[in-house]
Amino acid sequence: MRTKYSKRYKKIHTDQKDKTPQKFEEVISKVKKNCTTKFDESIDVSFFLKLKKKKEEFNIRTIVNLPNGNGKKVKVAVLCEDSKVNEAKKSGAELFDSETLINDISQGKINFNKLIATPAMMSKIGKLGKILGPKGLMPNPKLGTVTNDILAGVKALKSGQIEIKSDKDGNVGASIGKKSFSDSKIKENFEALIQKIIKEKPAGLKGDFIRSAFITSTMGISFKLKLPK
User: Fold this and answer.
1) One domain for residues 136 and 207
2) What is the 3-state composition of the chain as percent helix, strand, coil, each rounded to the nearest 5?
3) What is the pTM of this model?
4) Residue 16: is its pLDDT beyond 60?
5) Collapsing DSSP states into helix, strand and coil, what is residue 73?
C-alpha cells in the first residue's frame, strides 16, 4: 500500500534540499521554521560517537546540566526515611515516602520521571531493580540520584539536569529546548551538551570522538550539523 503524506510533511521535506553540514547558528532557524504543529515542539539533537577501539567497546552514561533546562516538566519521587520526609516536601518533589512508594513501585505504579533515594534506602529497593532498571529509573550515586542532600538533588533535576546514555551503536540523543526558546538559549544548551560529551572521550581513543551530529524538532526533519574543530 502506498504511503500517504500530509501537506505539512511534503512541504518541510521539499525545503530540505541542502544536506551538507551546517553551523548551529545557521540551521536553528530552519528547524524552527519546520515546527508547524500547534504545540510547542521539542528541539532534539543526536550524536553518533566512536566508542570502539579494536576489541574494546565503551559506553557513556552521565549527567549534563543544561543552563536553560529543556522545557520538559520533571515529576520527582523521593524515597527516604521518615526523618527526611519534611526535607523532601520542601524540595519540591511531587512524591515522597518509604514503604508506600516501595509498594507502589513493586506493583508497577510508577507515577514519576525521576527517582531520588537516600543511601539508607538503597538496601530496600535492591529487589526493585528489575522494574526500575529497564526504565532507567534506578537511583545511581554517579548520576546524583542517591544522596542525603535531597534539596540539592531535586533542584538539579528540576532546573535542567538531564541524563545522557549511549546505545549499543554509539548513538546519544537529548532534547535541548523548545521551539519557544530563544536561539541563544538553545545554543547555550547545545554547547553545554557537546562539551560534556567531548570530556567523556575514553582515554587512548584516537581520532574524532563525535562522528556526526543532527538536529531536528519533534515533528520536523533532521539537519546535519557542522561540528566545531
Assistant:
1) no
2) 35, 25, 40
3) 0.86
4) no
5) coil
